[in-house]
Amino acid sequence: MFEVTVFSGMKPALASHLLEPGQAETAVNCLLESGEIRPLGGLLKVDSIQGAAGTIYRYQDKWLSWVGRVILRDGPIAGDQKERVYGTDDEGAFLFCNSDELENNTLKNRYSLGVPSPDSVPLVTVSGTGVEESDIVSRVYVYTLVSDLGEEGPPSAPSAVVDVQEGQTVNVSGLNNVAEGFRPISLIRIYRTVAGTETSEFHFVKELEAGTVSFADSVPDSDTAEVMVSRYWEPAPQKLQGLTSLPGNMFAGFKGNEIFLSEPGYPHAWPDAYGMSVPHEIVAMESTGNTLVILTRANVHTITVDDPSLSVPNCLDGYLPCTSAAGVVASPFGVIFPSLNGLYLVQPGSVPQNITAGIFTEKDWRALKPDSFNGVWHAGQYICFHEPGAGFVFDPISKLLTKLGFHCTALTVEPEGRLLHVAYPAGTQTIISQWDGSDFSLRSEWVSGEMRTKEPVNMEAGIVLADYANAPDDSFLKQPLELSCVGSDMAGAVCLGGDSNSFYRVQRKGEVYFILIADGKQVFEGRIKTDRPFILPAGYVATRFQMGIVSDIPISKVDIDPAMGDLL
Predict the structure, then answer these.
(1) What pLDDT does 488 receive?
(2) In angstroms, how far is CA 541 from the centroid of its own chain?
(3) DSSP readout, 252-299?
(4) Is pLDDT at 484 greater than 60 in this prediction?
(5) For the chain: N or C, fewer Cβ within 10 A?
(6) Is 195 in contact with 136 (CB distance < 8 Å)?
(7) Whether the Cβ atoms of residue 73 and residue 88 lie closer than 8 Å to each other
């Protein structure tokens, strides 16, 4: 009478009896893209670290972690031998590379992003006798600092003007290479103005080792062709947040309601001229193509970033505050973010779309606490964890929605979106695991919508078609599991004892349980071992029915009927 052969996800906005056949009132730890109920693969433990972790990142086969939320971006320069990684945390922007020392799963030294201007003014004096009747030229000197990664900063304040003739030497002193909080300085570069040029540009004179405090300049003007490129560069602003990658080897970030862009090709350089602002405080930003999406506490803004000096924010229609920076993700379709009444998609040239419209009511959505969202884009889906201790998976194309029966505190996708790793607490440790990486399946749970009959009936029999042939046998495969259980039954692990040393991974036994609910009351629960019809209880009649499945193997059909013969 009631048969389901194509299983679908949840639609909380609809009453249970209004769901279409195959739609679920509940779907937990399910993969439904195939139309079958397939259990989500378990989490494969790859490492453990001490303490809590709100951010994890794999670098050179080592796991780094931070207690709070940190945004990390691979360096924009292809083939970078230093393997630079850039990030923003509560203190602002920073970077690290493969020569930096690690300690206890984190960076031993934190280096702010950029190179500062020197904190001393060069002193200049002239020595020697000039060539008679040679021109007297006026010069101004500045110098810059260069980091151990070859990144050049802005110039010092200019020296006093000095007049010099051919044959004389200008002694430049008072050089200083202090850059507290930034990367170590390896070089000092001397620049000066050049007579006969039509601009006041500074031209390169000499490169010195860091620690050099003076320089005798006798370099002729003809050898100073290179013009300083870093004159208007600055380090990343203090307290910069939301580091975002853009085409053209650029980064963007924000502070308050201000937006900042880096110099194309020079991610350590942030010219003041590229700054701009929006009316409201910024919560997060992300990019889609060359469009920067700015999410605030009120409106959404976009910026087309071709030339950073000409970029202007464009305010999109609608009051759509972003509720959680950690819930913002970049997808192939655009930027997805949580707002007050659903998930929104921002695409260049169009107004934001509520991609969960019709799936959640506003009340349902608020119950998920969207201000606690922590999401990633992986395998064509938005995967999100939220308080209190739950999560969901949503496919914006098929509109499939399923719940997650466990909670993770940190997520990271790499490389190129193929692998997802998650982290969750276990006592004083944090366990890092590969998503869907274990041979052991999680336990899937699926409950149908309410199906109704015109007259009260008794369902005499049921049938569940499942992959019984490939189910493991009843033997137990015990392997030490160096972590406590997470949730009720994480990654196929069950507790066999009272402490963290007594946990074992137990091989699933191909368990399938069928549940029948009649007029809101559970009338049957039993383990099903074959694809043959089974008898359901007598002694009741009802008009409203729901079928439930709890399984760790694929399910292709469930059916209930008032007559056993109709199922044979």
Answers:
(1) 32
(2) 52
(3) EEEETTEEEEPBTTBTT---GGG-EE-SS-EEEEEEETTEEEEEESS-
(4) no
(5) C
(6) no
(7) no
Q: For residues 432 and 423, what is the distance between their CA atoms, to the nearest angstrom? A: 4
Whole-number Å distance between alpha carbons of 175 and 41: 61
Strands 410-414 and 401-404: unpaired
CA 316 to chain CA centroid, Å, is 24
Q: Average the pLDDT over 60-83 and give the result.
A: 92
Interval 193-235: pLDDT, tens: 987 555 689 999 999 999 999 999 999 988 988 999 999 999 9
Look at strands 503-505 and 429-434 and give their pairing.
unpaired
For 86, the 3-state DSSP assignment is strand
Q: Give the helix/strand (H/E) hosting 364.
A: helix 362-367
DSSP state letter for 357:
B
- Measured CA to CA, the distance from residue 464 to residue 567 in angstroms comes to 11
The per-residue pLDDT of the chain, averaged, comes to: 90
> Are 284 and 374 contacting, i.e. CB atoms less than 8 angstroms apart?
no
Average pLDDT of the residues in 506-522: 82
pLDDT value, residue 472? 57
Beta strands 401-404; 390-394: pairing state:
antiparallel
Model confidence at 475, in pLDDT bands (50, 70, 90)?
A: very low
Residue listed under structure tokens 């292709």 = 556
Task: State whether residue 379 is helix, strand or coil.
Answer: coil
Give the confidence band of 112 by pLDDT, cuts at 50, 70, 90.
Answer: very high
E-strand ranges in 325-441 read: 329-331, 334-338, 343-346, 353-354, 374-378, 381-386, 390-394, 401-404, 410-414, 419-426, 429-434
Residues 4 and 23 sit within 8 Å (Cβ to Cβ): no
Collect all residues with Cβ–Cβ distance below 8 Å to 400 and sequence separation of at least 6: 8, 9, 32, 33, 393, 394
Position 542 confidence tier, pLDDT thresholds 50, 70, 90: very high
**CA dihedral for 402, 404, 408, 413, sign (positive or negative):** negative
As given in the structure block, the two tokens for residue 230 are: 């870093």
pLDDT at 356 over 90: yes
8 A C-beta contact, residue 172 and residue 159: yes
Answer whether 313's CB lies under 8 Å from 302's CB. yes
Q: What percent of the chain has pLDDT over 70?
A: 92
Quick one: pLDDT at residue 408?
A: 96
pLDDT at 77: 83
Only one residue has tokens 């580091």, namely 243
Q: What's the CA gap between 224 and 170, in Å, rounded?
A: 15
pLDDT value for 417: 67
Determine the Cα–Cα distance for residues 291 and 245; give it in Å rounded to an integer. Answer: 11
| Separation between Cα atoms, residue 568 and residue 566, nearest integer Å | 6
Residue 480 tokens read as 């030490």
Is the distance from CB of 167 to CB of 131 less than 8 angstroms? yes
Locate 381 and state its tokens: 């889906």
CA–CA gap between residue 337 and residue 318 (Å, rounded): 14
